[in-house]
């Protein structure tokens, strides 16, 4: 999606985190995650907010770092973002390789010759 602003529901779906988790992270990481709100209090997330949420998610979920440690690591956001993007790319490559392996195995089971 390429929009200026995203709702909490859209962000929740994009990153795979619940609404309460996103609101909690907004409070805990207020220095790094400033979400715009309208007069009614509806949250509007920018792409930069989503990238920050992905960095927080990477630190807390992938690296299993506690919140205080994540706050320290976020001071060097460029390093965190680079590492997160490398991990995302590696996961994507792994997913493709698994799909290729499954296809090769199914072709062998059907008795087809696989030329590589």
Q: Secondary structure elements and their pairing?
A:
Blueprint: H1 8-15, H2 19-28, E1 36-37, E2 43-44, H3 47-62, H4 67-73, H5 77-109
Explain what this protein looks like in three dimensions.
The structure is a single chain. This protein is mainly alpha-helical and 116 residues long. 64% of the residues lie in helices and 3% in strands. It contains five helices and two strands. Strands 1-2 form a two-stranded antiparallel ribbon. Strand 1 (36-37) and strand 2 (43-44) form a beta hairpin. Helix 3 packs across helix 5.
Overview features:
two-stranded antiparallel sheet; Multidrug-efflux Transporter Regulator, Chain: A, Domain 2; 116 residues; 64% helix; mainly alpha; 5 helices
